[in-house]
Predict the 3D structure of the following.
Amino acid sequence: MKINERTNGGRTSRWPLLEPPVQRPKVHTPSLLRRRPWHVLEAPTGEFPAVDAEEAMGPQLPDEATVNFVLDLSLRLGEVQMASGAGASDVTATIIAIAGALGLPHCEVDVIFTSITVTCHRGSELSPITALRVVRSRSLDYTRLTETEKLIRQIVRGNVGAEQAQTELERITSAPHPYPRWTATLAWGGLAAFITILLGGGFDVALVAFVISAAIDRLGRLLNRYSLPFFFQQVVGGLFATLSAMAIVSSGMMTTDRPTLVVAAAVTVLLSGLSTVSAVQDAITGYNVTAAGRTMETALMSAGLIAGVVLALRIAVLLELPLTPLPEITGSTPQQLPLIVLGGAGASACFALASYAKLRATLVAAAAGAIGAAVYGSLMVAQLDGVSSSAVAATLVGFCGGVLARRLGVTPLVVAVSGITPLLPGLSTYRGLYQIGVEPGGNISTLMTAVAIGLALAAGVVLGEWLAQPVRTGLGRLERRFAGPRMAGPLEPTERSLE
């Protein structure tokens, strides 16, 4: 290029002339990051130059010991969520967020019903590191789940380092339940009592349901000491509840119609806590293997309950015990709405308390149960069918839980499961089992209706949580891409380096 020179006060200045640039032949040098994997494996050619052996590909990660430490921490946090009933999508998003926040941005997570596997990719020169953790036990402890949620948020926001998080997680997982075991027993009995009120029973029936359900809980705890599988515990629970109701009918302590509500309430208690919501959430979000495992577990536990109730009804027929006619499922009236709301709020609060939720979570669960019961009762007054009413009520419960629960420091999963517990089809299930086990030529349609109500409740909760996402993140961001309904874990993963 030509350069002009001129003198200005003894100084020489230079500038380029405005002439067209020299035309050089173009050489195709594609970026290594845009090359296909098979190009790296090909021999060097004129079109694709050879890869520089000294050029590092992929992220620079910490040493192997640090990677193992972070993976172990992420797996243990995911295990707590999985054991508490969180969906596979929530566990996956949580582990990815924690690993990214602690300096491992490229991880792959595989969650199935009984195990969690995480692989950390360390570029092209180092082999990946894989860690696996088996989820051996499952228990409802919503205080532990809530404390774990708080720890996860602190990690993602960058307020807690890896070692401090490990220490805090040890404290959370080793801490005893916040309440003594007898408190949970009373709460299970209270759940049955409020269910009977919700179904239209009197306070005398509620008292009997309280005693029987509390006895079932203590009996199950005794059987659990001998490591009896949970399937047989469900059989014993259904058998004990039904025979107790038949004994009450024989003694003449109550009218011949209402004692069947005791069995319906006990069936509802035995159905509560099953992973129906998580199974539907996993199926909707594409985790079909985990959804199949949860569905199999729910079906097996329900089969145990069915076997216990049918066996008790058969025994009652052989012993010629008086059988009461089933109470019809009648529509609600406006005068019954206050009792329905009271029963829904009390049942949800008792379930949350039986699952060791703290006071704030219990109150939020009670509010969710009251909202769901009010909507369900109102739709039944409007002569809407039970399946549709349950779906709409559960959707509203999921929506309110998704919008308000996180702002109040409560995990949405706690609100969702507790809020739909009063709407579980305990009476429909007992009616279907009675028709199959006692009546000649039993009709299975009633039992299928109960299954449809359960699925409608679970799907409605998941839909409500999905609808709550744009409201929770701002009405002006409706166009954001959704990752799926989120019942647990952080909403938006962030990045921070490892401390």
Notes: The beta strands are 3-8, 11-16, 107-111, 115-120, 129-134. The chain is about 60% helix and 5% strand.
